[in-house]
Amino acid sequence: MTRKLxxxxxxxxxxxxxxxxxxxILEKTLINDTYKLNDVCAVDADNVWAVGxxxxxxxxxxxxxxxxxxxxxxxxxxxDASSSxxxxxVGRNGTVVHFDGSRWQQQKKITTSDxxxxxxxxxxxxYAVGAKGTVLSLDGSAWKLQSLGTSYxxxxxxxxxxxxxxxxxxxxxxxxxxxxxxxxxxxxVHSVSATxxxxxxxxxxxxxxxxxxxxxxxxxxxxxxxxxxxxxxxxDAVCMTGASNVWAAxxxxxxxHLDSKGWxxxxxxxxxxxxISCAGGNDIWEVGSEIGAKWVSVPLIKRYDGSWKKExxxxxxxxx
Length: 320
What we know:
- By secondary structure, the chain is mainly β.
- The chain folds into 2 domains: 33 residues; 275 residues, YVTN repeat-like/Quinoprotein amine dehydrogenase (Methylamine Dehydrogenase, Chain H), CATH 2.130.10.10.
- The protein contains 1 helix and 28 strands.
- Strand 6 and strand 7 form a beta hairpin.
- It starts with a helix and ends in a 10-residue tail after the last strand.
């Protein structure tokens, strides 16, 4: 009896050791080989792109998510598109990559400044912003490089060639042919979205110690105003399809929505959102990260089509 008990205990310890080793290997793989997602762009329900660290680009075709070859190993911070065959992404060290419907191709480098966001009107009119107040604009086939004399521009939204907003640590800038400082709320503005020259929304927040951070939602209807404060989160992304359909997302799994009935919000302390995109009034996409086992952060994509659901995304698969 004693010998059987010893054998059983030994077998149990061996199983725990093997299981522990397997878990340790899995944990190390998750830490070293997964990626961070920074932004998402949804053209429609069957054409969605997400970008992130190490040149990561994921594509959703209406059925499943797959890796795409991005032609860069640099981290990508922003993505936008005018159609399913005109998609642009920007990132570290002035990286700009373009998808023409068949493949991604890195563009000639115009600046070495990090580029944090991009807005696309059409294939001949693209705007990107970044560090050192950098503004890159594509007019036809030629890129133009400007600096607005500020430190960091974090977001850009182009409603037309003469209606472009850029936001950053010093507030809001506007271009109707010439860039001008338009509004300073007194804190950094992180993201902006616009539908036309009379309607735009932006989000931002000042410095603070988590969770004591209060984000502010800004609205433009001829003049900028601060319309809502959201406590205990850092809102980093905003999108809109109209004046009564606005979405914002950020830390602590916070999603804020404005519809005809007013503002609502949801939170999830184990999730953080970095990007959000509106494919339509009731088709919204978020990207970011969630905290898994042993507090390991893993990439996350969620979709709203009446309710929020997590997407099944590849963690380690190579690009197709």
